[in-house]
């Protein structure tokens, strides 16, 4: 493994970028190194923004009644960085505007709307913070920037390098994944380190996949359970960045290397890189969720997703949660929300990845 490097929640994990920097051609190596350098600075910004939002939550008076769901639609703004690295860029499309002659702008706009609608329609959530937060995205960030990220206030999309990665707005589940980091940040403040960090990444993979399934009307059996399926170019030997169905099988490429995500605690990766392997070991809770979704059947967002969402909101979920403690919370939520059959399915799903409740 590489030396320890703190990372921000980004679509492309640092270990993949490191492999490109080692194995790619001169241009690919240059793009990967530039992306890695920018990702390091984004983490600082995200931590700062997270502290500001936490302070605002603390200062705000408590709600006297539970939220009853959003009363209006999303408030979207898409900016164009024009290959610079300044945010939020020039506003090119705002809420209610017609589509423009820029595919990335329209994809970002539609992806923000699809994610907002998913959380509104399935769980009655009013935007990222459940309080009507405006949704801001910036496209065309940087030159050949091979990533997308949530910085604590907005979404940012690179155009990719065109050789290994397509533009990052092309994948709805990536948009849902990154915005879900904001939901997790708002609800549970899971520490971005070791198992709690892997849970943080897994929650984003789960809801990113569900956003796409919801838009397509797919059942758990019909879904491909891939994250970033349209992100890789045809030059890459792989199908996506990650697979919830079969962690460790998403790609095996001379430049990107092989997918090292484990699907069972027997293969848990202990490392100082990637904040303790947050993008790697997330394969284990990902597989557990897939197991639950398949066992319960139907639309995964209806029961499996509801259990995971309420577990994320539960006061029993601590910022330093482990896989086992999160498994316990999901089991309790299954019992509270549904009953014995669902509880049994959740318990067996975790047992299948080596975690007993």
What is the strand and helix layout of this fold?
Layout: H1 14-23, H2 26-59, E1 76-80, E2 90-94, H3 103-123, E3 135-139, E4 148-150, E5 155-157, H4 172-187, H5 194-216, E6 226-227, E7 242-243, E8 252-253, E9 257-258, H6 274-277, H7 283-296, H8 304-313, H9 323-337, H10 340-351
Parallel strand pairs: 1-3, 3-5
Antiparallel strand pairs: 1-2, 4-5, 6-7, 8-9
Helix pairs in contact: 1-2, 3-4, 3-5, 4-5, 5-7, 7-10, 8-9, 9-10
- How many beta-strand elements? 9
Which residues form runs of ≥5 with pLDDT under 50?
1-6, 44-55, 57-68
Task: Classify the secondary structure makeup into a structural class.
Answer: alpha/beta
- Level of helix content? 40-55%
On the 0 to 100 scale, the average pLDDT is: 90
Cα shape = globular
Strand order across the biggest sheet?
2-1-3-5-4
* Count of DSSP H/I helices: 10
- Biggest sheet layout: 5 strands, mixed
Gross CATH architecture of the largest domain:
Roll
What fold name goes in the CATH topology slot of the largest domain?
Elastase, domain 1
Tell me the span between the first and last alpha carbons: 31 Å
**Which H/E pattern describes the elements?**
HHEEHEEEHHEEEEHHHHH
What is the CATH C-level name of the largest domain?
Alpha Beta
Strand proportion, as a percent range, falls in 5-15%
Radius of gyration in whole Å, from Cα? 19 Å
Number of domains: 2
What oligomeric arrangement do these chains adopt?
Answer: single chain
Question: If you had to describe this structure to a student in words, what would you say it looks like?
Answer:
With 357 residues, this protein is α/β, with parallel strands linked by helices. The protein folds into 2 domains: 14-187, Elastase, domain 1 (Roll); 194-351, Orthogonal Bundle (Neutral Protease, domain 2). The protein contains 10 helices and 9 strands. It has a 5-stranded mixed sheet, with helices on one face. The chain has a two-stranded antiparallel sheet with strand order 6-7. A two-stranded antiparallel sheet has the order 8-9. Helix 1 runs antiparallel to helix 2 (26-59) and helix 8 (304-313) packs across helix 9. The longest helix is centred in the N-terminal third of the chain and has 34 residues, at 26-59. The protein is globular, with a radius of gyration of 19 Å. The relative contact order is 0.12. Mean pLDDT is 90; it is low at 1-6, 44-55 and 57-68.
